[in-house]
Write a structure and sequence with these properties.
294 residues, alpha/beta, 6-stranded mixed beta sheet, two-stranded antiparallel sheet, 9 helices, 42% helix
Length: 294
């Protein structure tokens, strides 16, 4: 059931207060150095000097003035940030005091406020096994609050995940180069591996992609608590497991390790920087480590 308007606004305000301060802590004035591929825009024309790149010569001005002139470029001051947010049913899992959804919302808000403080545009793609909602890039605090409102209150049409759909949509909708963060647990029951890899290859040639992979500790390892029923939130599939069996726990952990290894290999193969964040971990530390590496 959708929460009432007052409760939703309180949650939005709480996230705003917490994440605006964290955005400064994480980037510490080095926001622009964390992003690659910022474009170059024309600044002025000046006379050629020894050592200048001849490829920058402005032949029209050179012909008119009879002296060689070059075009001077400067780094574009405006960046577009796209947030690709997984809203499939698996985001609602959490064995600690935080759901994966809560952590994703805070991380997305931190990134959005960091962009806003640098006068950059922010857009958002909410996806399941389809694109559920697209918020075009804009500037301003009110726009960021609109995104946060959707982060905490959005109700998708589908419970499932198909990562390739979101990445393909990014490629089609973002005409100019942007930095795109994929915020997801990357658990894709559709076995979308090859299509996802292909979509990443195409998008990576145009945009700067960054992965933020969320997981809960109970997804990686089962505790010894006897016989329990597990349910896949996205497919509805249920299974009874005897967690008192060491063999069962080892098999569960091995399957998790194999699955995450495939995810990590796909992202690494496509040269996508990635942070891995646990619901019981410190996402601030993980983000700082990620951006220092960039």
């Amino acid at each position: 059931m959708r929460e009432n308007e007052n409760d939703l606004l309180k949650r939005v305000r709480k996230i705003e207060i917490k994440t605006r301060g964290l955005s400064n802590e994480i980037f510490a004035g080095k926001y622009h150095t964390a992003f690659r591929g910022r474009g170059m825009s024309f600044s002025e024309v000046r006379e050629y000097r020894a050592g200048d790149d001849v490829r920058d010569i402005d032949w029209n001005v050179t012909a008119r003035s009879r002296k060689p002139h070059i075009k001077v470029y400067e780094e574009e001051r405006e960046l577009t940030m796209m947030l690709l947010v997984d809203v499939s049913a698996s985001r609602l899992f959490g064995s600690t005091d935080r759901l994966k959804q809560s952590v994703v919302s805070e991380i997305a808000a931190v990134l959005a406020f960091s962009a806003a403080q640098n006068n950059d545009k922010v857009g958002c793609i909410f996806f399941s096994d389809r694109v559920e909602k697209f918020i075009p890039p804009k500037k301003g605090r009110s726009h960021i609050l609109t995104i946060i409102r959707e982060l905490v209150g959005f109700e998708p049409q589908s419970p499932r995940t198909k990562l390739s759909e979101a990445v393909r949509f990014l490629t089609n909708v973002a005409k100019k180069r942007c930095t795109a963060f994929i915020l997801s647990d990357f658990l894709d029951p559709s076995r979308d591996g090859e299509a996802f890899d292909e979509a990443l290859k195409i998008a990576r040639g145009k945009h700067d992609l960054v992965g933020i992979r969320l997981y809960d500790p109970r997804e990686a390892a089962l505790p010894d608590v006897g016989i329990v029923e597990l349910c896949d939130a996205e497919t509805g599939r249920k299974a009874w497991l005897d967690t008192s069996s060491r063999a069962v726990r080892d098999h569960y952990a091995a399957r998790w390790s194999a699955r995450t290894a495939r995810i990590d290999e796909t992202l690494r193969h496509n040269r996508i920087d990635t942070a891995v964040v646990a619901t019981d971990g410190d996402y601030v530390a993980e983000l700082i480590k990620l951006f220092r590496q960039r």
